[in-house]
From TrEMBL:
Keywords associated with the record: ATP-binding, Cell membrane, Membrane, Nucleotide-binding, Translocase, Transport
Translocase found in the keyword field: yes
Matching PANTHER family: ALIPHATIC SULFONATES IMPORT ATP-BINDING PROTEIN SSUB, TAURINE IMPORT ATP-BINDING PROTEIN-RELATED
Record domain ABC transporter: where: 48-269
Region feature (Disordered): 1-36
Protein's name in the database: Aliphatic sulfonate ABC transporter ATP-binding protein
Organism: Paenibacillus montanisoli
Taxonomy, superkingdom: Bacteria
Keyword Signal included in the entry's annotation: no
GO molecular function: ATP binding; ATP hydrolysis activity
């Protein structure tokens, strides 16, 4: 299929790292980190290793020897231009696509089809209209356990709507039910395919906080596909850019949580956005970008 393209690893220039980290004094971030470790349990998420993955449709090569490793419990965001292959990568991790070449391992084991501990949340909630809110969540629980489904609805603040029909819920509430269904089985890997794309700005911010809180509490590995670079920086430990079928930029987001839209945040946002829009400075290789 397509020829292998070199993978580019991009890290922030040292002086820019210093600039962004200066927003968070080291003693403050050390205290925040210790508090966070006490508050949040150790990661129980799946490690992911993708090596040389090739995925295409007919003559179209979408992923071209893509390399990506995600440590357990990491929150990774995937960005890139429309049609670059973000959802294809997500479907590969979900077991919904097979790589023609290369390998995908989840938790050290070669991936082979769907796994019960891997859940996907899509842009549309995909609730069954003829089932109540609770019964929609029960679909996500092995054996349909009511108590577990109700507990998941409580997590997203909708236990009081358990007996209602999906049709009476707002778009944001439907996505919360979809999140409850995805989390009800306590997945080790949660794949989020632009889940907030159809929501209004305020509901989107609320949902981002909810997803961040639940991820911090449960420590699953999370992979979020998003068109919104700001959302990626707000939520992710690390943001990768898919371009030409490979990872073209790989940025660790070293900002304390919850994240404020301050100078450090904007710096990350602009760095990634400029790269997505191919607005790298002409002498990028001399300014600390390692490509
Ligand atoms: N089942 C399929 N059959 C044929 N082509 C497909 C299939 N799925 C995806 N493609 C093509 O693969 C390419 C990548 O699609 P993909 O949905 O992964 O992109 P994306 O980056 O998620 O796009 P967007 O941001 O617009 O959602 C597109 O050109 C798309 O048309």
């Amino acid at each position: 299929m397509a020829s292998a393209l070199p993978q580019r690893k991009v890290s922030l220039p040292p002086e820019e790292k210093a600039q962004s980290s200066s927003k968070v004094p080291s003693q403050v971030s050390a205290v925040a980190s210790a508090a966070s470790q006490a508050e949040h349990p150790a990661p129980r998420g799946l490690r992911i290793d993708v090596h040389g993955a090739v995925v295409g449709f007919g003559d179209l090569a979408v992923l071209r020897r893509l390399e990506l490793s995600i440590p357990p419990g990491q929150f990774l965001a995937v960005v890139g231009r429309s049609g670059c292959g973000k959802s294809t990568l997500l479907r590969l991790l979900a077991g919904l696509e097979q790589a023609a070449e290369g390998s995908v391992a989840l938790g050290g084991a070669a991936a082979s089809g769907l796994r019960p501990d891997v859940r996907v949340m899509f842009q549309d909630a995909r609730l069954l209209p003829w089932k109540t809110v609770l019964d929609n969540v029960r679909i996500g629980v092995p054996g349909g356990d009511r108590a577990k489904a109700l507990a998941a609805l409580e997590l997203v603040g909708l236990a009081d709507r358990a007996k209602e029909w999906p049709s009476v819920l707002s778009g944001g509430q439907r996505q919360r039910v979809s999140l409850a269904r995805a989390l009800a089985a306590e997945p080790s890997l949660l794949l989020l395919d632009e889940p907030l794309g159809a929501l209004d700005a305020l509901t989107r911010i609320e949902m981002q906080s909810l997803i961040e809180r639940l991820w911090q509490e449960r420590r699953f590995t999370a992979v979020l596909v998003t068109h919104d670079v700001g959302e990626a920086v707000a939520l992710a430990d690390r943001v990768v850019l898919v371009e030409n079928g490979t990872i073209a930029q790989d940025v660790d987001v070293a900002l304390a949580r919850p994240r404020e839209k301050d100078g450090g945040f904007t710096h990350y946002e602009n760095t990634i956005l400029n790269r997505v829009l191919a607005r790298l400075p002409p002498d990028a290789s001399q300014t600390g970008f390692s490509i």
